[in-house]
Design a protein that fits this description.
Layout lengths: L3 E8 L5 H10 L6 E5 L7 H7 L6 E3 L10 H17 L6 E5 L6 H10 L1 H6 E11 L3 H7 L1 H9 L2 E5 L6 H14 L5 E3 L26 H8 L5 H4 L21 E8 L5 H15 L3 E8 L6 E8 L2 E9 L8 E8 L3 H10 L3
Parallel strand pairs: 1-4, 1-5, 2-3, 2-4, 5-6, 6-7
Antiparallel strand pairs: 8-12, 9-10, 9-12, 10-11
Function: Zinc chaperone that directly transfers zinc cofactor to target proteins, thereby activating them. Zinc is transferred from the CXCC motif in the GTPase domain to the zinc binding site in target proteins in a process requiring GTP hydrolysis.
InterPro entries: CobW-likC_sf, CobW-like_C, CobW/HypB/UreG_nucleotide-bd, P-loop_NTPase, Zinc-reg_GTPase_activator
Pfam family, one: CobW_C
Length: 347
């Protein structure tokens, strides 16, 4: 039986997760979706909304949050669903896990890699994060979970942009891109999103796709360790008016390493292993497409927290510049230690 794709839908309270989910469930796409919900409290209002007119099977855990101490609960639910599917008792093509607004997606994502039984049935496709444009500034300032949700995302959807002035939205996008330059950003209106932007994004595949936002790279190129003050035009934005709003004050931030020199494989493996051991809990997402000595193919690695995987990818194309690029997204990671260490792993 082929693996069941899984999507984690995350985002702060009121950011429109249920609206998006409802939209996806009701769109005529011929796919059967099993939804795993986990709202706090016994009474689940979302359930009343969701059951309205769709025939999807909704499995709900009303006893708390999906990813705290009750990770077993998610695991049990996933195992149960897969068993029922195998026996033909349930029919579904993919699952969507809607996390509570307060959830950190990290442990949910880890379940798919750390648990052999789950890994035999499911393939984690991507983490989608909804950001409420109207309240995001405050939420990102106040709540680390909100910042982590942005850092983990493979795709970010901005809701309620119609309620916010354009310059405020631009400033928010600027801030989000500094936290996570690898996730495409898209404004959504009442959950209207093409399914191709929701499913089969292959965010966790060891593939050679690593698109980093070009504005972020430009800033990175002429960075003097104060890059937020470098973009003059951004600093007139209202949300940039106070020092504590500057992107470099967010604890979730990202940096990129690029080099055209090949890596020494042994040195690189040892260095990355050490960094993951030391900083793993603070490393949210990281990915690299690498030029490695002795390989005529690209080498790809990616990880979530302490879980790192690597694989040999496609051949370098004729005429393609051979080089490495890596992006690290984490909480207060020591950028200089990473960049200098990686530099020392070059052959």
């Amino acid at each position: 039986m082929s693996l069941i794709p899984a999507t984690i839908l995350t985002g702060f309270l009121g950011s429109g997760k249920t609206t998006l989910l409802k939209r996806v469930l009701s769109e005529a796409h011929g796919q059967k979706i099993a939804v795993i919900e986990n709202e706090f409290g016994e009474e689940n209002i979302d359930n009343d909304i969701l059951v309205t007119d769709s025939k999807e099977q909704i499995v709900q855990m009303s006893n708390g949050c999906i990813c705290c101490t009750i990770r077993e609960d998610l695991r049990a639910t996933l195992t149960d669903l897969a068993a029922k599917k195998r026996k033909g008792e349930l029919d579904f093509d993919r699952i969507v896990i809607e996390t509570t607004g307060l959830a950190d997606p990290g442990p949910v994502a880890q379940t798919f890699f750390m648990d052999d039984e789950i890994a035999e049935s499911y393939l984690l496709d991507s983490i989608l994060t909804l950001v409420d444009a109207k309240h995001a500034g405050q939420q990102l300032d106040d709540r680390q979970e909100a910042r982590r949700q942005v850092g983990f995302a493979d795709q970010i959807f901005l809701s309620k942009t119609d309620l916010v002035a354009k310059d405020a939205t631009d400033a928010l996008i600027h801030r989000l891109k500094h936290m996570n330059p690898r996730a495409p950003l898209q404004a959504v209106h009442f959950g209207e999103v093409p399914l191709k932007d929701v499913f089969d994004l292959r965010g966790f595949n060891l593939n050679a796709k690593l698109d980093i936002d070009p504005d972020f790279l430009k800033a990175d190129d002429h960075e003097h360790h104060h890059h937020d003050h470098e973009h003059g035009e951004h600093c007139d934005h209202p949300s940039h008016a106070h020092g504590h709003h500057h992107a470099h004050d967010d604890d979730v931030k990202s940096f990129v390493f690029r080099s055209n020199r090949p890596f020494n494989p042994a040195k690189l493996e040892e260095f990355l292993g050490t960094m993951v051991n030391v900083y793993g809990p603070r490393m949210l997402r990281y990915k690299g497409v690498l030029r490695v000595q002795g390989f005529d193919k690209k080498v790809i690695f990616q990880g979530v927290h302490q879980l790192m995987g690597s694989d040999v990818g496609p051949l370098w194309a004729a005429g393609e510049t051979r080089g490495s690029k890596m992006v690290f997204i984490g909480i207060d990671l020591p950028k200089d230690v990473f960049l200098q260490g990686l530099e020392q792993c070059l052959a």
